[in-house]
Specification:
Layout lengths: L2 E5 L3 E8 L13 E7 L1 H11 L3 E9 L2 H12 L3 E8 L5 E8 L4 E6 L8 H5 L2 H5 L3 E4 L5 H13 L3 E4 L9 H5 L3 E2 L3 H8 L6 H12 L5 E5 L5 E5 L2 E5 L12 H14 L4 H16 L11 H10 L20
Parallel strand pairs: 1-4, 1-8, 2-6, 4-5, 8-9, 9-10, 10-11
Antiparallel strand pairs: 2-3, 6-7, 11-12, 12-13
Helix pairs in contact: 1-9, 7-8, 9-10, 10-11
The protein binds alpha-D-ribofuranose.
Length: 324
Protein backbone atom coordinates (compact mmCIF):
# COMPACT_ATOMS: atom_id res chain seq x y z
CA UNK A 1 0.00 0.00 0.00
CA UNK A 2 1.20 3.52 -0.79
CA UNK A 3 1.91 5.54 2.38
CA UNK A 4 0.47 9.05 2.12
CA UNK A 5 0.36 11.79 4.77
CA UNK A 6 -2.27 14.53 4.56
CA UNK A 7 -1.72 17.63 6.68
CA UNK A 8 -4.85 19.77 6.73
CA UNK A 9 -8.38 20.61 7.75
CA UNK A 10 -11.31 18.64 9.13
CA UNK A 11 -14.73 20.31 8.94
CA UNK A 12 -18.25 19.22 9.58
CA UNK A 13 -20.28 20.09 6.47
CA UNK A 14 -23.78 21.49 7.01
CA UNK A 15 -25.26 21.10 3.55
CA UNK A 16 -28.49 22.71 2.34
CA UNK A 17 -29.93 21.45 -0.97
CA UNK A 18 -31.74 24.29 -2.72
CA UNK A 19 -33.29 24.89 -6.14
CA UNK A 20 -31.01 27.85 -6.66
CA UNK A 21 -28.34 29.39 -4.47
CA UNK A 22 -29.78 32.44 -2.63
CA UNK A 23 -28.52 35.82 -3.79
CA UNK A 24 -27.53 38.56 -1.34
CA UNK A 25 -30.48 39.50 0.87
CA UNK A 26 -32.62 36.58 -0.36
CA UNK A 27 -34.10 33.77 1.76
CA UNK A 28 -34.85 30.45 0.07
CA UNK A 29 -36.30 27.18 1.37
CA UNK A 30 -34.02 24.16 1.36
CA UNK A 31 -35.34 20.86 -0.04
CA UNK A 32 -32.99 18.82 2.13
CA UNK A 33 -30.32 19.16 4.81
CA UNK A 34 -27.36 16.93 5.70
CA UNK A 35 -24.68 16.98 8.39
CA UNK A 36 -21.61 15.10 7.14
CA UNK A 37 -17.84 14.90 7.50
CA UNK A 38 -15.86 17.22 5.20
CA UNK A 39 -12.92 19.63 5.11
CA UNK A 40 -10.43 19.66 2.26
CA UNK A 41 -7.72 17.81 4.20
CA UNK A 42 -10.05 15.13 5.57
CA UNK A 43 -11.73 14.75 2.17
CA UNK A 44 -8.39 14.17 0.45
CA UNK A 45 -7.33 11.70 3.17
CA UNK A 46 -10.55 9.68 2.93
CA UNK A 47 -10.56 9.75 -0.88
CA UNK A 48 -6.97 8.43 -1.02
CA UNK A 49 -7.76 5.72 1.55
CA UNK A 50 -10.84 4.59 -0.42
CA UNK A 51 -8.58 4.26 -3.45
CA UNK A 52 -6.31 1.89 -1.54
CA UNK A 53 -3.59 4.12 -0.06
CA UNK A 54 -2.28 3.77 3.49
CA UNK A 55 -3.19 7.25 4.78
CA UNK A 56 -2.26 9.15 7.95
CA UNK A 57 -3.77 12.54 8.70
CA UNK A 58 -2.34 15.43 10.71
CA UNK A 59 -4.89 17.99 11.95
CA UNK A 60 -7.14 19.18 14.77
CA UNK A 61 -10.77 18.80 15.77
CA UNK A 62 -12.69 20.25 18.71
CA UNK A 63 -13.73 18.31 21.80
CA UNK A 64 -17.34 18.15 20.60
CA UNK A 65 -19.73 15.69 18.89
CA UNK A 66 -18.68 16.89 15.42
CA UNK A 67 -15.05 16.18 16.28
CA UNK A 68 -16.05 12.67 17.39
CA UNK A 69 -17.96 12.21 14.14
CA UNK A 70 -14.91 13.23 12.09
CA UNK A 71 -12.63 10.83 13.95
CA UNK A 72 -15.02 7.93 13.75
CA UNK A 73 -15.42 8.43 10.00
CA UNK A 74 -11.62 8.45 9.65
CA UNK A 75 -11.44 5.14 11.56
CA UNK A 76 -14.23 3.68 9.42
CA UNK A 77 -12.17 4.48 6.34
CA UNK A 78 -8.93 3.12 7.85
CA UNK A 79 -7.16 6.49 8.05
CA UNK A 80 -4.58 6.67 10.85
CA UNK A 81 -5.67 9.37 13.32
CA UNK A 82 -2.81 9.22 15.80
CA UNK A 83 -1.71 12.71 14.70
CA UNK A 84 -5.15 14.31 14.84
CA UNK A 85 -5.26 16.28 18.08
CA UNK A 86 -8.43 17.13 19.98
CA UNK A 87 -8.41 20.82 20.91
CA UNK A 88 -10.22 21.61 24.15
CA UNK A 89 -10.43 25.37 23.44
CA UNK A 90 -11.84 25.54 19.91
CA UNK A 91 -14.83 24.02 18.12
CA UNK A 92 -14.48 21.62 15.19
CA UNK A 93 -14.18 23.50 11.87
CA UNK A 94 -17.57 23.98 10.24
CA UNK A 95 -18.59 24.57 6.63
CA UNK A 96 -21.97 25.93 5.58
CA UNK A 97 -22.69 24.67 2.08
CA UNK A 98 -25.55 25.38 -0.31
CA UNK A 99 -25.88 23.06 -3.29
CA UNK A 100 -28.23 23.89 -6.13
CA UNK A 101 -29.79 21.73 -8.81
CA UNK A 102 -27.00 20.70 -11.20
CA UNK A 103 -24.45 20.38 -8.39
CA UNK A 104 -23.00 23.90 -8.13
CA UNK A 105 -22.26 24.99 -4.56
CA UNK A 106 -21.18 27.84 -2.33
CA UNK A 107 -19.16 27.22 0.84
CA UNK A 108 -18.42 29.40 3.90
CA UNK A 109 -15.96 27.91 6.39
CA UNK A 110 -15.45 28.63 10.11
CA UNK A 111 -11.85 27.57 10.72
CA UNK A 112 -12.28 26.57 14.41
CA UNK A 113 -9.75 23.99 15.62
CA UNK A 114 -8.07 23.89 12.18
CA UNK A 115 -6.62 27.31 13.06
CA UNK A 116 -4.72 25.73 15.95
CA UNK A 117 -3.03 23.10 13.78
CA UNK A 118 0.38 24.67 14.36
CA UNK A 119 3.90 23.89 13.04
CA UNK A 120 4.52 22.01 16.31
CA UNK A 121 1.71 19.56 15.33
CA UNK A 122 3.52 19.02 12.03
CA UNK A 123 6.88 18.54 13.78
CA UNK A 124 5.27 15.85 15.93
CA UNK A 125 4.47 13.97 12.71
CA UNK A 126 8.03 14.12 11.33
CA UNK A 127 8.44 10.38 11.66
CA UNK A 128 5.38 9.47 9.55
CA UNK A 129 6.16 12.20 7.01
CA UNK A 130 9.69 10.80 6.59
CA UNK A 131 8.26 7.36 5.70
CA UNK A 132 5.58 8.60 3.27
CA UNK A 133 5.66 8.39 -0.52
CA UNK A 134 3.69 11.62 -0.80
CA UNK A 135 2.59 14.56 1.35
CA UNK A 136 -0.66 16.38 0.52
CA UNK A 137 -1.45 19.86 1.89
CA UNK A 138 -4.13 22.53 1.30
CA UNK A 139 -4.63 26.00 2.82
CA UNK A 140 -7.40 25.61 5.45
CA UNK A 141 -4.82 25.49 8.28
CA UNK A 142 -2.26 28.21 9.16
CA UNK A 143 0.16 28.83 6.28
CA UNK A 144 3.17 28.38 8.61
CA UNK A 145 2.06 24.78 9.21
CA UNK A 146 1.71 24.16 5.48
CA UNK A 147 5.19 25.57 4.92
CA UNK A 148 6.62 23.44 7.72
CA UNK A 149 5.01 20.27 6.35
CA UNK A 150 6.32 20.86 2.85
CA UNK A 151 9.76 21.77 4.18
CA UNK A 152 9.96 18.56 6.25
CA UNK A 153 8.73 16.43 3.38
CA UNK A 154 11.33 17.88 1.02
CA UNK A 155 14.03 17.25 3.61
CA UNK A 156 13.01 13.58 3.54
CA UNK A 157 12.72 13.51 -0.30
CA UNK A 158 8.96 12.92 -0.08
CA UNK A 159 6.86 13.99 -3.13
CA UNK A 160 4.88 17.13 -2.19
CA UNK A 161 1.45 18.10 -3.51
CA UNK A 162 -0.18 21.46 -2.75
CA UNK A 163 -3.84 22.21 -3.37
CA UNK A 164 -3.87 26.03 -2.94
CA UNK A 165 -7.41 26.29 -1.57
CA UNK A 166 -8.66 28.66 -0.30
CA UNK A 167 -6.14 30.60 -2.36
CA UNK A 168 -3.77 33.22 -0.94
CA UNK A 169 -0.36 34.61 -1.86
CA UNK A 170 2.35 31.94 -1.58
CA UNK A 171 6.03 32.54 -0.90
CA UNK A 172 8.65 31.61 -3.52
CA UNK A 173 10.20 29.28 -0.93
CA UNK A 174 6.98 27.32 -0.46
CA UNK A 175 6.37 27.10 -4.21
CA UNK A 176 9.91 25.93 -4.86
CA UNK A 177 9.38 23.03 -2.41
CA UNK A 178 6.17 21.89 -4.14
CA UNK A 179 6.53 19.04 -6.64
CA UNK A 180 2.95 19.14 -7.90
CA UNK A 181 0.65 22.17 -7.63
CA UNK A 182 -3.07 21.51 -8.22
CA UNK A 183 -5.16 24.73 -8.30
CA UNK A 184 -8.64 25.01 -9.77
CA UNK A 185 -9.37 27.58 -12.46
CA UNK A 186 -10.05 30.45 -10.03
CA UNK A 187 -7.02 29.68 -7.89
CA UNK A 188 -4.82 29.44 -10.99
CA UNK A 189 -6.11 32.82 -12.19
CA UNK A 190 -5.24 34.37 -8.82
CA UNK A 191 -1.77 32.85 -8.56
CA UNK A 192 -0.78 33.29 -12.22
CA UNK A 193 -2.42 36.73 -12.33
CA UNK A 194 -4.24 36.11 -15.61
CA UNK A 195 -7.73 35.30 -16.91
CA UNK A 196 -8.53 31.75 -18.00
CA UNK A 197 -11.13 31.60 -20.75
CA UNK A 198 -9.94 28.59 -22.74
CA UNK A 199 -7.94 25.42 -22.33
CA UNK A 200 -5.10 27.27 -24.04
CA UNK A 201 -5.23 29.96 -21.31
CA UNK A 202 -5.22 27.21 -18.68
CA UNK A 203 -2.07 25.71 -20.19
CA UNK A 204 -0.52 29.19 -20.25
CA UNK A 205 -1.40 29.63 -16.55
CA UNK A 206 0.10 26.21 -15.76
CA UNK A 207 3.31 27.24 -17.56
CA UNK A 208 3.46 30.49 -15.59
CA UNK A 209 2.92 28.66 -12.32
CA UNK A 210 5.69 26.20 -13.19
CA UNK A 211 8.05 29.12 -13.67
CA UNK A 212 7.28 30.10 -10.04
CA UNK A 213 8.68 26.83 -8.63
CA UNK A 214 6.60 23.64 -8.86
CA UNK A 215 7.95 21.12 -11.37
CA UNK A 216 4.47 19.94 -12.31
CA UNK A 217 1.17 21.85 -12.40
CA UNK A 218 -2.38 20.57 -12.97
CA UNK A 219 -5.15 23.15 -13.37
CA UNK A 220 -8.55 21.59 -12.76
CA UNK A 221 -11.42 22.98 -14.83
CA UNK A 222 -14.45 21.30 -13.26
CA UNK A 223 -16.79 19.88 -15.87
CA UNK A 224 -14.29 20.88 -18.57
CA UNK A 225 -11.53 18.56 -17.34
CA UNK A 226 -7.95 19.44 -16.46
CA UNK A 227 -4.70 20.61 -18.03
CA UNK A 228 -1.19 19.59 -17.09
CA UNK A 229 2.23 21.14 -17.68
CA UNK A 230 5.43 19.43 -16.61
CA UNK A 231 8.47 17.52 -17.81
CA UNK A 232 6.17 14.93 -19.42
CA UNK A 233 4.79 17.67 -21.72
CA UNK A 234 1.48 19.53 -21.81
CA UNK A 235 -1.77 17.56 -21.64
CA UNK A 236 -5.45 18.46 -21.82
CA UNK A 237 -7.74 15.80 -20.33
CA UNK A 238 -11.49 16.22 -20.90
CA UNK A 239 -13.79 15.31 -18.09
CA UNK A 240 -16.47 12.63 -18.20
CA UNK A 241 -20.01 13.73 -18.91
CA UNK A 242 -21.93 12.83 -15.78
CA UNK A 243 -25.25 13.70 -14.23
CA UNK A 244 -23.96 16.24 -11.67
CA UNK A 245 -25.69 16.17 -8.29
CA UNK A 246 -23.17 17.75 -5.91
CA UNK A 247 -19.68 19.00 -6.73
CA UNK A 248 -18.62 19.25 -3.04
CA UNK A 249 -15.32 17.43 -2.62
CA UNK A 250 -14.98 16.53 -6.30
CA UNK A 251 -11.73 18.52 -6.54
CA UNK A 252 -10.48 16.77 -3.39
CA UNK A 253 -11.26 13.38 -4.93
CA UNK A 254 -9.50 14.39 -8.16
CA UNK A 255 -6.38 15.39 -6.25
CA UNK A 256 -6.34 12.23 -4.11
CA UNK A 257 -6.87 9.99 -7.13
CA UNK A 258 -4.13 11.77 -9.08
CA UNK A 259 -1.74 11.31 -6.15
CA UNK A 260 -2.55 7.62 -5.71
CA UNK A 261 -2.25 6.96 -9.46
CA UNK A 262 1.11 8.76 -9.75
CA UNK A 263 2.50 7.04 -6.66
CA UNK A 264 1.33 3.78 -8.26
CA UNK A 265 3.66 4.64 -11.19
CA UNK A 266 0.80 5.36 -13.62
CA UNK A 267 1.92 7.59 -16.46
CA UNK A 268 0.70 11.19 -16.30
CA UNK A 269 -1.98 11.08 -19.03
CA UNK A 270 -3.55 7.91 -17.58
CA UNK A 271 -3.33 9.34 -14.06
CA UNK A 272 -5.22 12.45 -15.21
CA UNK A 273 -8.00 10.34 -16.76
CA UNK A 274 -8.16 8.24 -13.60
CA UNK A 275 -8.46 11.41 -11.50
CA UNK A 276 -11.17 12.85 -13.80
CA UNK A 277 -13.13 9.61 -13.46
CA UNK A 278 -12.85 9.63 -9.65
CA UNK A 279 -13.88 13.32 -9.47
CA UNK A 280 -16.76 12.66 -11.86
CA UNK A 281 -18.10 9.80 -9.76
CA UNK A 282 -17.94 12.01 -6.64
CA UNK A 283 -19.94 14.71 -8.46
CA UNK A 284 -22.64 12.22 -9.44
CA UNK A 285 -23.43 11.52 -5.76
CA UNK A 286 -24.66 13.72 -2.89
CA UNK A 287 -22.25 14.85 -0.15
CA UNK A 288 -18.47 14.94 0.18
CA UNK A 289 -16.84 11.92 1.82
CA UNK A 290 -19.90 9.70 1.53
CA UNK A 291 -19.71 10.23 -2.26
CA UNK A 292 -16.09 9.26 -2.76
CA UNK A 293 -15.41 6.21 -4.94
CA UNK A 294 -13.43 3.08 -4.14
CA UNK A 295 -10.69 1.77 -6.42
CA UNK A 296 -13.21 -0.77 -7.78
CA UNK A 297 -15.72 2.02 -8.54
CA UNK A 298 -13.13 3.95 -10.58
CA UNK A 299 -11.85 0.87 -12.41
CA UNK A 300 -15.42 -0.18 -13.25
CA UNK A 301 -16.23 3.35 -14.47
CA UNK A 302 -13.13 3.49 -16.67
CA UNK A 303 -13.93 0.04 -18.07
CA UNK A 304 -17.39 1.10 -19.22
CA UNK A 305 -16.58 4.70 -20.20
CA UNK A 306 -14.10 5.15 -23.01
CA UNK A 307 -13.23 8.72 -24.00
CA UNK A 308 -14.98 9.67 -27.22
CA UNK A 309 -17.69 6.98 -26.98
CA UNK A 310 -20.99 8.66 -27.78
CA UNK A 311 -23.10 5.94 -26.20
CA UNK A 312 -21.07 6.14 -23.01
CA UNK A 313 -20.82 9.06 -20.68
CA UNK A 314 -17.64 10.63 -21.96
CA UNK A 315 -17.21 13.65 -24.15
CA UNK A 316 -14.30 15.72 -25.28
CA UNK A 317 -15.37 19.33 -25.67
CA UNK A 318 -11.97 20.53 -26.79
CA UNK A 319 -12.09 22.54 -29.98
CA UNK A 320 -9.36 23.17 -32.50
CA UNK A 321 -8.72 26.73 -31.30
CA UNK A 322 -8.26 25.58 -27.71
CA UNK A 323 -11.52 27.09 -26.44
CA UNK A 324 -13.78 24.91 -24.29
O1 LIG B 1 -13.52 20.95 -0.84
C1 LIG B 1 -14.75 20.78 -0.22
C2 LIG B 1 -14.65 21.11 1.24
O2 LIG B 1 -14.38 22.48 1.37
C3 LIG B 1 -15.91 20.87 2.04
O3 LIG B 1 -16.01 19.55 2.52
C4 LIG B 1 -15.85 21.93 3.11
O4 LIG B 1 -15.65 21.43 4.39
C5 LIG B 1 -14.71 22.87 2.70
O5 LIG B 1 -13.57 22.69 3.44
Amino acid sequence: MIPIVVVGSLNVDLTFSVNSIPSRGETVSAKDFHVSPGGKGANQAIAAARLGADVSMVGRVGADPYGDMMLSNMHGNKVDTSHIFTDTMLKTGTAMITVEKGGTNTIAVYQGANGACLPSDVDAADDIISKASALIVQLEIPIESVERAVHLAKKHSVFTILNPAPVCELTPELLSNVDLLVPNETEAEYLAKMRIESSRDAVEAARKLRSMGPERVVVTLGAKGAVFAGPEGEIYTPSYLIDAVDSTGAGDTFLAALTVALMDQMEMSSALSYACAAGGIATSRMGAQSAFPTREDVEGFLYTNTPGRISGTVVSNRTADGSF
